[in-house]
Amino acid sequence: MDSMNTKKTFTFLGAALFMFNVNSKAQDSMSLKKNLSLQDALEMGMQNSKSIRISNSKINEAIANYDDAKMGRLPDASASGGYYRINKPKIDLKFPTSSSDGSSSGTTIPNVNSLMYGMVTANYTIFAGGKIKNNIKAANFLKNASQFDLQRDKEEIAENIVEAYYSLYKSQAAVKLVRENLATAQKRVKDFVRLEQNGIVAKNDLLKVQLQESNMELSLLDAENQEKVLNYNFNLLIGLNDATKVATDSIDMTKFPNADNANALEQAALTNRGDIKALLEREQAAQTQIDLAKSDKLPSIGLTGGYIAMDVPHAMSITNALNLGVGVKYDIGSLYKNKTKVKQAQAQVETLKWNQAALEDNIKSQIFTNIQNYIEALKKLEVYQTAIQQADENYRVTKNKYDNSLATTTDLLDADVAKLKANIDFEYGKADAIISYNKINESAGTIISKYNLDNK
Predict the structure, then answer these.
(1) Rounded to an integer, what is the distance from CA 225 to the centroid of its chain?
(2) How far, in Å, CA of 227 to CA of 219, rounded?
């Protein structure tokens, strides 16, 4: 009896532990699911992007270089000192020394056993041909350029997140539609099995619907695999846990504005884009390099001063030894060496100007291409909407004909596949239209302000 009770107790505990484990796993699985809007994804991506952190590090480096350049205005100062122990040397003179009255006397050597000294010097540049000022200007331009580099990184990252988000949306829509179609195919197979057993349909027709079911299963495997890959890469992009299953928002069909005028977008790009603003700052920095190279021909004038103190016990003590003066330095070699430096700096400025012109052409091309792609995407979307209506009607008519033995099983299956394709194309078309529209904003440099990501 006790044995039976014990067995029942262990059975109950085992079942309880099993249910607890199942519930825990279910809760863990649910905790990894996340409904995520595009805005939330963009903000999260900006906060976690490694590229942005790299750009911030470059900004910090540029700020440090700028601060270092400003230090050139301050005087240079140094201090040194020393203490030495000196042994008493043995000196053996081979000739007599004479006193002032001509009489011979012994040599008296002080008992020196140590030496101490201290020295402070300072140098202040009064005039350096504008080198300090131009170094500060160049460093400031480069600091600004690094900040605009960060802005451009944000623009590109925002577009990457938008594209990744809606690519994931497309894959999830495909999985949903294929799964629904598979359920229909499975039901159809069950119906055909029963009809074939009753001799109503031929074995060949049953094989056709079974083949479609198998094809749907393969399509679902492909769609689910693509969804997993896109979901994983999207999590990496925005800094989510790798195992998080993201649920994307549905697409509002009313959020498809008309494309803006290309000229207006080009002007916006020249004003807003971080890469072109960074290039302009680097061009200004290169221009200051020309001034720096020319300043080598000018002399430098500096103020210098110092103080020294020394103590040699039993021998000598020096205090209040001050010095103050003005120094002039002129590099005569710069008269014939400087020309090449100036030419190098001028060539760099010219290169940057051509880079700017090439970038402006590239921006125009991007804007024009993205506008055309968006217009095409909107037109395709209209066609896809019509295609869904046509596919639904075609399936309805074909199904009615099939039920009245006026259409073959192949016709019915083809109509079913066409209906599935029309629905998938429509979901893809919506996502592609949004991606195309955001590419216009990215190429015009307005995507950051559109999603209020300036301070993210």
Answers:
(1) 27
(2) 12
Three-class SS state of 319: strand
CA 348/CA 345 separation, integer angstroms? 5
pLDDT at residue 65, as a whole number: 95
> What sections of 32-113 are H helices per DSSP?
38-48, 50-70
Number of neighbouring beta carbons within 10 Å of residue 433: 25
- 96 CA to centre of own chain: 86
CA 5 to chain centre: 65
- Domain boundaries, given as residue ranges, for the chain: 43-75+131-297+334-450
Place of tokens 């906060």: 47
Torsions phi, psi of 117, nearest 5?
A: -150, 155
pLDDT of residue 372: 96
| End-to-end Cα, the chain, rounded Å | 70
Summarize pLDDT for 369-401 with one digit per residue, the tens. 999 999 999 999 999 999 999 999 999 999 999
DSSP structure string for 68-79 = HHHGGGSPEEEE
Contacts of 445 (CB under 8 A, 6+ apart): 155, 268, 269, 271, 272, 273, 274
CA-to-CA separations, 26 to 19, 33, 281, 356, 384, in angstroms, rounded: 10, 11, 55, 56, 39
- What confidence score (pLDDT) does residue 416 get? 95
Give the span between the Cα atoms of 92 and 99, in whole angstroms: 18
pLDDT of residue 91: 65
What value, to the nearest 5°, has the Cα angle with vertex 293 and ends 289 and 299? 135
H or E element, residue 317: strand 316-329
CATH code for residues 43-75+131-297+334-450:
1.20.1600.10
* Interval 282-311: pLDDT, tens: 999 999 999 988 888 888 899 999 999 998
Intervals of the chain under pLDDT 70: 1-31, 89, 91, 93-109, 456
SS (H, E, C) 152-195: HHHHHHHHHHHHHHHHHHHHHHHHHHHHHHHHHHHHHHHHHHHH
Question: What is the identity of the amino acid at 291?
Answer: D
CB 248 within 8 Å of CB 172 = yes
48 close to 236: Cβ distance less than 8 angstroms:
no
Q: What is the DSSP letter of 408?
A: -
